Amino acid sequence: MKSEPSAYSIDDLQREKTTIWDGVRNYQARNILGEMKKGDLAFFYHSNCKPPAIVGLMEVIETNIVDPTQFDRTSAYFDVKSTPEKPRWHTVKVKFKEKFAQSLSLETLKQTFNSDDFLVVKKGNRLSVMPVNNTVAQEILQLIRA
After folding, report:
1. Rounded distance, CA 1 to CA 30, Å?
2. What is the extent of the structural domain holding 9?
3. pLDDT tens across 54-71, in order?
4. Angstrom distance (rounded) from CA 23 to CA 8
5. Which of 14, 42, 106, 135 is deepest in the core (most CB within 10 A)?
6. d(Cα 60, Cα 36) in Å, to the nearest integer?
7. Would residue 92 be called left, alpha or beta, if left means φ above 0 and alpha means ψ between -120 and 50 degrees?
8. pLDDT per residue as tens digits for the range 26-64
9. Contact, 35 vs 120, CB < 8 A?
């Protein structure tokens, strides 16, 4: 799950302990959020910074939350077609697990994984939420903890 550190960083999550992952406005990413289960782990990825990198770990603690930003007319994520009776956007609540002592840069990820195994390294594929298979997740954790 990615966020620009200037908008919401791993340090923000560490300080707040929990947050809802609001503002996702891509249907594919929304559907991935909808498949998440309580207890799932997620990497926190800092994007649009130098260097973009995996910087921490969080845990899904609640699922199927209606994203409140879709109803807030002052929000950049307001959706005029969404109503409280028929919300279009749902999300999850996550809690901070770990800030990695060293981050794992996109460059390192590209050198380590191919795009068939890990979508983050596929050119042009930068969804805000992407699945990571267990084998890749274990390899990422090994790289970070090496």
Report:
1. 11
2. 2-145
3. 999 999 999 999 999 999
4. 11
5. 42
6. 8
7. beta
8. 999 999 999 999 999 999 999 999 999 999 999 999 999
9. no
How many domains does one find in the chain? Answer: 1
In this structure, what token pair is assigned to residue 119? 């979508």
Look up the CATH number of the domain holding residue 112: 3.10.590.10
Q: In sequence order, what E strands does 33-116 have?
A: 41-46, 53-66, 90-105
> Two tokens at 123?
């050119």
The three-state secondary structure class of 27 is helix
Nearest to 45 by CA among 146, 123, 144, 145: 144
Q: Which residue has the tokens 């926190």?
A: 44
Pairwise CA distance, residues 34 & 125, whole Å: 19
- Classify 53 as helix, strand or coil: strand
